[in-house]
């Protein structure tokens, strides 16, 4: 395997740190840009990774990219919170659109640059109910966050049309895994509440569905995407729908906790059903998701048990 230079923006985040765990098993050189706004460097603890703490919108980031001259960029750094994107639309656009453009334009100046892999999202489809959604399905973003991802895809496509800029935009379904507490998706939220014997809240009937994909499958997909020869957009998903009620039941069973959820009115703007076809990405890479929701949740339990054991061992040390 020829040694290449990988730059991961947002490498200290939830998905980025999983990508790094996979990449450090390879001989490639690894570089990270992260401003640590939501990411945490202590997750990584690997000397082989060169971390530049800076903002993707900064001149420092441009200079770093020029110096590193990466072959591949996996661009994950973003403002990822949908409510924040609604409350602070300019900030969201600044980080997600202008920040991405900053990184993209810097990559265009790198000689021998091979591919830009962009973390897009199912949020670009918004409330499109023509399930399962494929890459040709109409984009109908319902939030500034979804809009920003859609805009970035268009900038990438435009640059490919203008001068063959090689890219691949992956539209992730709902990613779950061992997230830090501050970053709650529905699975982390239910898990945390139930583990503390508290009843989680289900908004609406709970019959609304999502396509849940385990973070390890996403990390693998991001690395495989560098070898896709045809620029374009690809869904990365399980192609399975699970209702919020089923998620609640699965986690309750795994933790062996019997509690009724608190039921509240549906939230405005919530997508009702979501499911993404992963056919195109499978055909392009041979990738298959390793985990279905049940096995992903079991793996999550294993990771969390190890963490607890580790924390208990450390707190047993008498000074
Ligand atoms: N987690 C999901 O369910 C999901 C779904 C679809 C798409 N995505 C996309 O995947 C990517 C990674 O998401 P995540 O869940 O790991 O989020 P995360 O918040 O855990 O990671 C984002 C990382 O980017 C860094 N960052 C943020 N703004 C920055 C800036 N201006 N300059 C430099 N670094 C900055 C943060 O410190 C963090 O380490 C994002 O682009 C997100 O939009 C995530």
What does this structure look like?
The protein is an alpha/beta fold. Helix content is 40%, strand content 17%. The chain has ten helices and 13 strands. The chain has helices spanning 14-23, 59-68, 82-87, 89-108, 144-163, 186-195, 215-224, 244-255, 279-285, 293-315; strands spanning 5-9, 29-34, 49-53, 72-75, 115-121, 167-172, 174-176, 201-203, 209-210, 212-214, 232-236, 242-243, 262-264. It has a seven-stranded parallel beta sheet with strand order 3-2-1-4-5-6-11, with helices on both faces. Strands 7-10 form a two-stranded parallel ribbon. Bound molecules: nicotinamide-adenine-dinucleotide (NAD). The site of nicotinamide-adenine-dinucleotide (NAD) has 29 residues, from helix 1, strand 2, helix 4, strand 5 and strand 7.
Outline:
This protein has helices at 14-23, 59-68, 82-87, 89-108, 144-163, 186-195, 215-224, 244-255, 279-285, 293-315; strands at 5-9, 29-34, 49-53, 72-75, 115-121, 167-172, 174-176, 201-203, 209-210, 212-214, 232-236, 242-243, 262-264.
User: What would the CATH topology be?
Assistant: Rossmann fold
Please name the CATH architecture.
3-Layer(aba) Sandwich
Q: State mean pLDDT (0 to 100 scale).
A: 93
Computed CA radius of gyration, to the nearest angstrom:
20 Å
* The number of domains: 1
Net shape: globular
Major pleated sheet: 7 strands, parallel
Kindly estimate the percentage of residues that lie in beta strands according to DSSP: 15-25%
Protein name: NAD-dependent epimerase/dehydratase domain-containing protein
InterPro entries: Epimerase_deHydtase (IPR001509), NAD(P)-bd_dom_sf (IPR036291)
Domain NAD-dependent epimerase/dehydratase: 7-236
Family: Belongs to the NAD(P)-dependent epimerase/dehydratase family.
């Amino acid at each position: 395997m020829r040694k290449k230079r990988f730059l991961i923006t947002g490498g200290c985040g939830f998905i980025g740190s999983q990508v790094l765990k996979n990449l450090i098993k390879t001989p490639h050189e690894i570089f990270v840009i992260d401003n640590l706004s939501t990411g945490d460097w202590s997750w990584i603890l690997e000397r082989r990774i060169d971390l530049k703490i800076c903002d993707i919108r900064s001149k420092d980031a441009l200079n770093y990219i020029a110096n590193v001259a990466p072959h591949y960029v996996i661009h994950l750094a973003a403002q990822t919170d949908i409510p924040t994107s609604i409350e602070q639309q300019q900030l969201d656009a600044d980080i997600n659109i202008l920040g991405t453009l900053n990184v993209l334009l810097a990559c265009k100046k790198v000689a021998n640059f091979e591919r830009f892999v962009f973390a897009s999202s199912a949020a670009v489809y918004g409330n499109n109910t023509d399930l399962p959604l494929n890459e040709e399905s109409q984009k109908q973003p319902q939030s500034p966050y979804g809009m920003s991802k859609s805009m970035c895809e268009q900038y990438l496509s435009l640059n490919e049309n203008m001068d063959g800029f090689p890219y691949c935009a992956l539209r992730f379904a709902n990613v779950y895994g061992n997230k830090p507490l501050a970053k709650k998706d529905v699975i982390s939220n239910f898990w945390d509440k139930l583990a503390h014997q508290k009843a989680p809240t289900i908004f609406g009937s709970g019959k609304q569905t999502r396509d849940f994909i385990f973070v390890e499958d996403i990390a693998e997909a991001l690395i495989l995407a560098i070898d896709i020869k045809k620029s374009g957009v690809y869904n990365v998903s399980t192609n399975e729908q699970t209702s919020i009620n089923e998620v609640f039941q699965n986690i309750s069973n795994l933790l062996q906790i019997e509690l009724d959820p608190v039921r509240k009115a549906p939230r405005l703007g919530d997508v009702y059903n979501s499911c993404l076809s992963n056919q195109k990405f499978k055909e392009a890479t041979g990738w298959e998701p390793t985990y279905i929701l049940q096995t992903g949740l079991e793996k999550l339990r294993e990771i969390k048990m190890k963490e607890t054991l580790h924390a208990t061992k450390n707190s047993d040390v008498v000074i």
